[in-house]
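INFO batch 0412 | record 1 of 1 | parsing
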Amino acid sequence: MAPRISFFVFALALLLGIASASDVPGAIKFGYSDNNGPDKWGNLDPTFSPCSSGKTQSPINILKNLTVHNKLLKPLTRNYKPANATLVNNGFNVGLHFEEYAGEVSIDGKNYELRQMHWHVPSEHLIDGEQFAAELHLVHSAADHSIAVVAILYQQNDTDPFVAKIMNGLNELAKEKCKADEIAEIPIGTLDIKQLKRSSRKYYRYVGSLTTPPCSGNVTWNILGKVRSISKEQIAALEIPVNSDCKKNARPCQPLNGRKIEVYDELIG
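INFO prediction complete | emitting tokens
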């Protein structure tokens, strides 16, 4: 049986992987239903106020004809390595937390260490109004605590090789009957994530926020242009463990408010 830990989510600490479940102090429960959904987040707690008042929020609808090709952008340099990982159901999404150094991404000369990754079903970001079957967020943080996220979009089709690696763990997670204020953890052991380094020849970049409370800003988003495939069974495996009001855990798109969306495309140069 997976260990269960009672807590109310302190989202930023978990997102960065800088606190384990046992370290998390009391906070406010949020979800995706009418009672505690995205349009209510900003009023659930003072620390969540950016969710309603922030002007640079995420996710967004990326309109290709409004993107700006920036010749100064560099390829995403991601150097990941096998690391000990734990599969976590925190109630509002399923993710992997790394208990040791798992590699980093380099952006504009700054290194951001990979802390954790988690899935949203369906996708949070849209491309020209199209929503995808799922979205994976690889969350990184730098020494100055700034955050960079690499997002991968999925269409429902063939099996995803990476998700296939953790299907046994996802099935175990689905068997855990946790209360609303608990999480479950399944140790995965050493996990090689090199498959997630592929398809970085095109990406969209903009400055946004965390997509869950406290919706903190100044997050550097990098949405890969290559859409991967994921099977119907794998999507279900990502949905089943979470709370009933979080099965569909995509925050609606937020206003762009004049922000610039840059695009790097290796084919354009």
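INFO post-check: The chain has one domain: 4-265.
INFO record closed
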